[in-house]
Amino acid sequence: MFFVCWTCIQHARTNIIFADYLFGMAIAGFAMDAIHMTLLVQPLHVFHRQKQTQSAHTLPWFEKFIWASELCASPRGVGWNHEVKNLPGHLTNSKKEFVLSRLMSAAKHYLWFDLAQFYVRHDPGFQSSAAFVSQTITRRVLGCAVYLVFQYCMGVVVHALIVIMVVSCTSSEPSSWPNAFGKWEDAYTIRRFWGRTWHQFLRRFLTPFGKKMASFLGFEPGTNGSSYTQLYTAFFVSAIAHLGGDAMIAPSRLGISCSFFVYQALGITFEDMVLAVARRAGVKETKWTRVIGYVWVISWFIVTATQWVTVVGVAGIESGGKAIPSRYFPPSFCDILVNFLGI
């Protein structure tokens, strides 16, 4: 299995930095999920659909194969007994309303994607590693933020279009397709950002690794020892999954992403300590405490995410990758508008 993953990482490079990082991370994520499925649990006995009455291990071979394929295709467990908590609310409106809402979402996010693409194309810092590193810290933070917006919006658009096609052309119901990301207004702590706002496509295998480690160390479920062991194990395993992205864009710089994910566990630990002190002091959650929380989360990611995007981007450029190769992307509406106005 690892040989196949390593072969894919070596031969699937496109020289588009963000795409290579995503492909590499996905391949490594599949490997970690395979370890989870083969060594940590017995899928045929543990997992079942919410309305499933017959245990999967009793199904005929072909039906078992279909069942397993559907399980692997649902990393968030939507409609299964292991459905990830805190997913965006299931939509119960008609298919027509659902498709129209996703089309509107795709159009809105594509406009932001196009604006971010325009900035990245014309920012000299994305043309060479030396130019990027030589920028002022303000320009670098802005560039990294725009690049993350570019990736986020593209992910939302691609997910929305796939969902539209599936719901329109099959019997699949809208309730089976919650949004890929949660609400940004929920992200007033680092813990809530990772647990509610960001995608949850890795949680199916992150949680079992954490529980196994807590059990191995002898911590009782529900204790602080168990909780924080699971927290640090989850981010450590997530860092391992992102090693595939490092290997794809720059094999000689393996591990450059790891510190970012370790920092997240440390940040959440510090955050929990501050919140515990505030609760003992009688501080109640209000609109203003949430505002402080948003400022804290934004400041945290300005520091940690900027460093992460910088080292990954620089490594990718030094290895011959490009931020946005023109031949792979449609013309930017902003470029067309600028050319039309003669600016």
UniProtKB/TrEMBL annotation:
Family, as annotated: Belongs to the wax synthase family.
Domain Wax synthase: 177-262
Transmembrane segments: 21-41, 144-167, 291-317
Location in or out of the cell: Membrane
Biological processes per GO annotation: lipid metabolic process
Protein name (record): Wax synthase domain-containing protein
Molecular functions (GO terms): O-acyltransferase activity
Record-linked InterPro entries: Wax_synthase (IPR044851), Wax_synthase_dom (IPR032805)
Source organism: Rhizopogon vinicolor AM-OR11-026
Membrane topology: Multi-pass membrane protein
Main location: membrane
Gene Ontology CC: one annotated term: membrane
Keywords: Membrane, Transferase, Transmembrane, Transmembrane helix
Phylogenetic classification of the source organism: Eukaryota, Fungi, Dikarya, Basidiomycota, Agaricomycotina
Classification via Pfam families: MBOAT_2
